[in-house]
Please model this.
Amino acid sequence: MDETTRLLAELVAIPSVNPMGASASGPEYYEGRVGAFLETWLRAAGVPVVREEAAPGRSNVMARFDAPDPSARVLLFDAHQDTVPVVGMTVPPFEPHVENGRMYGRGSCDVKAGMAAMLLAFRRLWRERPARAASVVLACTVDEEYTHVGSSLLARTQTGIDLAIVAEPTKLDVVPWHKGSVRWRIRTDGVACHSSTPHLGVNAVYRMAEVVSALALHADELAASAPHPKLGAPTLSVGRIEGGRSVNVVPDSCEIEIDRRLIPGETPDGAVDRVRRFLESRRGLEGVAFDPPWTRMPALETPIGPWMEPLVAAVAAAVGRKPELIGVPYGTDAGPLGEVGIPAVVMGPGDIAQAHTKDEWVELEQVALAAEAYYQIALALG
Model:
């Protein structure tokens, strides 16, 4: 097993499941074990490591390579430590195995492949100290899959960054544009009573049915709105509903969860306010309450600077083809970085179609190519 494959297998074998807001405990949850591995791995290479707590018990793992030339650009390499849950997987999630040039397991594609490639590129810079390299801050962040507290901390604390490269599965294409997201709950209240006399109560599910019908109209309105040239129109989806306690009781509460995808120029709060105004105009807000959003991911729109041409050339030299500049509909750690003015692009091994899947996998050849690409980017942008 080559070094790239071995490192990726070690990362996949360490559970770092994000419970996505659910109550959870046990060794497979959160990033503590993989964070400890990263610290040990980097220190074994002689690299000083800093932990920055983003939430109780959840820390970004940070390291820095200072280029020999103090006037060199400073790059940020970002990869998140957490994965989505494993319910429904048809391959052993934490027993990585290789078949036909692919590694299977939770996080193999999203995003431990990109993390392994960044780690190897960073260690190579540390060992070789090429004279023309950029300085590189390596950040392994927490909670990317749910609330992005790791990258939000990074955005608040990192200064002097000229360009951020965020690892996500892009098939080694370069992403300067992506959608953002805001997620929140809407609740309807009612009055419970026995189901044999429903006229004595107020059915919260019926109230929510009116809300959901109105939201479907709002989603259609968004789909027909002016699209972003790279990302298309904004979207809205009701992804979850829960209400009532028993079939023989008129429900006094109902709750839905909403996923609203943002395009550049929109804000999370602005999108929520737009929904509120639409509902108010359609049915009023009696018995309707909005919870504060738990996800506020800004959209990304990175202006194409003079660094783009050498970056594209470096990736092309490493992978054997010129990468495309594309927009994607999902959010990443690049969103909070771009929001504070750090130019950011997303680029990494793997295909987003394999992320979060029941048999998640990544092409190992792409992981090796990504390690070379990250290293060449550091040389080209020094």
In short: The first strand starts at residue 50 and ends at 55. The two ends are 32 Å apart (CA to CA).
